Structure of CPBP family intramembrane metalloprotease:
Amino acid sequence: MIDLALAFYLVLILPSQQLWRSIRKSDKPKRSREQRYLATIRSIGMTLIALVAACWWSGHTASDLGLGVPTSGAALWCLLIPILGLPLLHYAGKAREAKMPAAKVAEMYEQVRASDALPRTPGEMKLFVLTTLFIGGGWELLYRGFLTLVLMPLVGAWGAVLIAGVAYGAGHGYSNPRQITLSIVSAILFSVGYVLTGSLWWLIVVHVGIPLMGAISCYKILNQQPNGEAHAIS
């Protein structure tokens, strides 16, 4: 019963809350980045505590949730995807930036500086890293490992993929039709990857690695003076 209650929260309540918050206009003062990071950590942390209780009650093991040690087969091969692919993605981005016109690079840097979500200080960066670990590890565990495990006996593997993918994509909130469509499609693809391999490890590395790489690159931009020299932003 506790499994179904947590699944209900993940499929309906949490995505609905996130969609509502992203659509409604609030008059409340905007929270600082640190407050937002801490709120995300608290929210995921509390949900993970509920997951631990559900697993203890129902007898689910780490392997049941996709956290078994990948020793062979598709799970091990797929772990090579982020290990090899993330460095290649980083250097490809650098090469692409090097070929951009100076005006385009300057425009891109200005967009980064205008963002209110990116960490600017060493303290914010540390919190952002922790937040990314909670997001990448926690949500993969909840929406891929746990939700697929609970839903598969009820709706089958591909039904579980569809439901978990749509719920997680909707949980990103709504900005525009393109954003929510991409969120749902990418979430479904991640769920397909999990069902085909039975392992969360490679998905967690991807989910943590990509935003961290982007944040580190943007942090360097935000800590550059106009002449290109680094400085600490207070």
The helical segments are 2-23, 33-58, 73-99, 102-114, 122-170, 177-197, 201-222. The two ends are 49 Å apart (CA to CA). Confidence is low (pLDDT under 50) at residues 226-234.
